[in-house]
Structure prediction request, 709 residues.
Amino acid sequence: MNYKEESVLIESDISHELDTLFKPKSIAIIGASSKELSIGNVIIKNLVHYGYTGKIYPINPKEPSIRDIKAYQTIFDVPDDIDLAHIIIPSKFVPQIIEDCGKKGIKSVIINSAGFNEMGEEGIALQTAFLNKAKEYGIRVFGPNCQGIINTDPDYKAYCDFTFTFPEPGAISIVALSGGVGAFIMQSLFDLEIGMRYYASNGNACDISISEVLNYYGNDEATKAIILYTEGFHDPGEFMKVAKVVARKKPILAMKSGRTAEGAKAAASHTGSLAGVDIATELIFEKTGILSFTNEEEMCQAAKAFSTQPIPKGNRVGIITNTGGPAVIATDELVHAGMQIPALSEKAIQTLQQTLLPEASIGNPVDVVATGGGIHFRSALDVMMNEEQIDSVFINFVTAPFTDTNEVARSIVEVNQQHKKPIVCNFMTNLSLERFQETAKILKDGGVPCYSFPTTAAKALGALYRYHLVQNRHIGEPKHFNDIDKVKADSILNNVKSTGEFLSSEQVYTLLSAYGIPIADWRLAHSMADVVKAAKEIGYPVVVKVESKSLVHKSDLGGVAINLKNDNEVLYAVEKMKEDFIEEDLRFLVQKFLPGGKELVIGVSAQKDLEPLVMFGMGGIYIEVLKDVVFKLSPVTRVEANEMLSSIKAAKLLDGARGEAALDKHSVIEMILRISQLVNDFPQIKEMDLNPVMAFEDGAFAVDARIKI
Ligand code: ADP
Ligand code: MG
Prediction:
């Protein structure tokens, strides 16, 4: 991000525009109804039930009161100012009502009504009409076709929604386009006894966007973590800008949906489809530092830890248990999440030997044994908190019937409230027994995130650690190469008239050369004599390939002859190709034969409304079978290019396996960066495959490439 962008964001940071939406002091319900089961009734019921602290003004032309609250015929009859209006009337009346709201000085509206952009031409016209009015009067619109917002702050208790979950105040804020998903996440947090701060589900999101809500949450001190659910982005560029800034301040947990078997099957012959269906969303999350989840329950369980715990300073976990097995299960999951269970220091071991029961097992994990009580847990906890090589603590606590479990719980809570290092607890108990209910309550009230499976608890701790990585990941700026010939590249690309077309090999290789991408020496030839002349110039051994606009996978058709060592071999190969290929524009590409390299692939696929994706992986003719490729959203930085090389499955092969020499990774990374710059300079490039790139100990060269514009 450059300096200018950053300053713009800092300015937008201090916006209070959404205050009348999230912190309304008075709310009008336009379309209030006395019908029990109507939205215009339920919203009033919810506001009252939840204890809304402001004034409620039902608007209804006929009824004198609704749910025992005085109603007004129009908003103009309301004697006071109104901050927020719910609009629950047929869509065709909405433009007029927005104008009225403007005249009344209302600053925010939630349009629950449907019947706009989702309904075809007539709806689109209505939406445009009300948006114009809103703009004229400076009204911010939430929705339409949406649920609304909830603010659990005891000062407001604004339940501007028709859902049925009444959350406890807390530190997690939710933003979801889909009301259905938003509602079940809210319900899950409630069931898991996790407090919520704000809720927002904005349906069509015609004005106030997900990005804007995200920014608002980012600036809300009481929001410790954000849960985000979206199926797409209206403006991915804007979203990325905001998400980057907010994710630095607090964790954003997001669901990635659309991971279907069909999506995987769609992976076919080129970069675009190898990317699958939702790779772009995943890459947006990665680039901005959003924690992506593929399981909604795991995400909610992680939110539980985020809502009370600090972020660990590293990946080293201390495990305290009073029963063996579950700690083993947890260890597996923790290690899987990239964490370590280091040995304890000499000093720590001595302390534990002096304070724990003789039968305790001292080390990491430390087993205080089932007969261990509050003081033993406390001692182990203190040791972990003071250990320099421990960053977080995993507790496995079974409520053994022969210990004072409340005492144990109180010890855990006391240490937890020091907020020195994050703690998660796998709590094994029987909650139908009153005695243990009390223990559970002590832990809950003390802000200890408790789980009923060791793996779940370990995954939650893993999520805290993932956020530590996000906070410490600095991808840097994309490198800008100056030794390129942009004018030449421009003239090549502007010569290609029709879109959807592949460039000729000549154009491809000239273009790549203009951007400093090394390619195997090549010549194009027509006649037999030309081919032999070209081969001599390049120097044997050479490769000969058929060249025609209509030929894509040349080697499948016998159109690639490699390792040709002399004139005769070249002539023989060309004669054979002339027999097999009848293309009118048939020519021959003569190329230097580069034996013994590793075959890699670098590719590009353009995205709608988004920067192109860059792909890297193991290449060659088996690419579709191996599918060992990774993607990044361009522009790719050096740090990201490095990550690409180290994150493919065959990463170790690049470093040289079984006595082989390591590849020249630097050259490969340079190539990725140059390709990234090329596609960012020329957005008309829709697809590009350098397959294979032959990589050696000292250098890497493209030997086959396709570009589609
Ligand atoms: P296509 O992808 O159209 O089938 P390629 O030009 O990629 O054709 O060639 C297919 C395979 O031939 C490559 O994967 C590589 O193994 C080999 N090959 C092609 N060109 C060269 C070259 N210049 N040096 C060494 N091997 C090559
Ligand atoms: Mg190829």
In short: The domain at 521-593 is CATH 3.30.1490.20 (Dna Ligase; domain 1).
